[in-house]
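Internal tracking record. Fields below are filled automatically when a chain is submitted to the structure queue. Please do not edit lines marked as system-generated. If the sequence contains nonstandard residues, flag them in the REMARKS field before resubmitting.
Queue: standard
Priority: normal
Entity type: single polypeptide chain
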Amino acid sequence: MKIWIKLLIGSLIGLAAGFFIPVQAQGLFDSVSSLLIGIGRYALFPFIFFSLGIGTSELRQEKRLLRVYFSIFKYLVLSAGLLIIIGTLSVLVFPPERIPITIEADRAFSAVSVIDGLKVVFPRNLFAVFFGSGDFLLPIVVLAFLLGLNMDFDRQLTRPVVQIFDSLSRIFYHLNSLIVELFAIALIAIAAARISHLSHAELGMYKQIIIIVAVDVVVVAFGVFPGALYLMGIRENPYRWLYASIGPAIAGLFTGDQYICLGIVTKHGKESLGVPRMVGSAVYPLFAILGRAGTAMVSTVSFILILRSYSSLEITFLQTLWVMFFSFVVSFILGAMPGNGAFYAIFMLCSLYAKGLQEGYLILRTIAPLLVSFGAFIDVLSSAFVSLLIAREENVWTEVEAENFI
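SYSTEM-GENERATED OUTPUT FOLLOWS
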């Protein structure tokens, strides 16, 4: 059975079960869900570390390093910018009803300093990057990249290290594959815990914003990405790549967790999309950390609704530009929030805006799991889409027949 079918079945079972979870049992299911997400991430950090290190070395040996990383950052910027524009237009053309403002004393998050984040990426003791909390992948990514750059200054001396990185990359790939194959079972409990919070909530006042975001997601997934492939000269079935990426997209939709999706999309990228390790090992981690386009789109739509709810006046052109610009900026500093991306981005936008709106994000707390899931769904598809583009641009793409997709 194909992995995406397993994930879909597990998600649907969890979805159905979640409606029957009593409020008193939500805490237990949340704890089980957190444990299972941790198991899903179990092999991720060493897998990314060794794969990115050897992948960077391979790119440098083939003189593709600068081109590939330039393409990655180009598409990070373009995808985030384009989806922010789409989200802004959708919420301005079809403005949702204002949401009543509620006063809450507690705060869901605390602001994170960029400087503090950089101190974690570049600690005084390099070995400290191996002892993080498991929520911030960037320190491992940066170290792996730097090691990969220095693996071929003298190939005879560095050959043993290169072989170790290559072997461990393959070993952890197989361990990650085992986790991916079994993750559908865990997805039952994760999806049930996620949907149970929504099943006991009053969603009537959020109906319009949910519809707008859902339509944006459908338009991007089934219109913008396939259309972009066609415009770029890839004339074969533009939905073929979407079929190859449906497994990690399902995981993103029902977990909202970027790191869970990272392990799954890496396997699908190689075995279904035909993207080699040298490209995938760079694209997937960076798209999970920086410039998350789907999250940026969802947070833009949500924050404009918050502005409308806090003011009886119409949103001005300058306010719209402010939201678009800072949504773009915030999308690049969400690396330490793999599981609450869109909601944390909304919190950051409220914190950065004028005084009096710092608690504004709390009016969307009820539908936060849904917003996070929508953002993660598009984030995963964005990384799969870009990995395919870059692999084809570099002529390292291997065509995989649809019947052989995993």
